[in-house]
TrEMBL record:
Protein's UniProt name: 4-oxalocrotonate tautomerase
Coiled coil: none
A Pfam family per the record: Tautomerase
Record NCBIfam families: PRK00745.1, PRK02220.1
Family: Belongs to the 4-oxalocrotonate tautomerase family.
Keywords, alphabetical: Isomerase
Organism (species): Veillonella magna
Source taxon at top rank: Bacteria
Domain 4-oxalocrotonate tautomerase-like: 2-57
NADP found in the keyword field: no
InterPro entries: 4-OT-like_dom, Tautomerase/MIF_sf
């Protein structure tokens, strides 16, 4: 049973997550050859001040 964790900075819509989850599920079924019911996708929203890129908090990016 593949369990796929997706971490995103907050702000994505429910529809965006749904589309991404569907695409991840399809790719996993096609590549790993497991039944669609076996694929689990977990979304984790991170606050923009809890994620840093290149030494700059995402909440402070311009």
């Amino acid at each position: 049973m593949p369990i796929i964790h997706v971490e995103l900075v907050e702000g994505r819509t429910k529809e965006q997550k749904k589309q991404l989850g569907e695409a991840i599920t399809k790719a996993t079924v096609d590549i790993v050859k497991v039944p669609v019911e076996a694929v689990k996708v977990i979304f984790v929203d991170m606050k923009a001040d809890e994620f840093m890129e290149g030494g700059v908090l995402r909440s402070e990016r311009k």
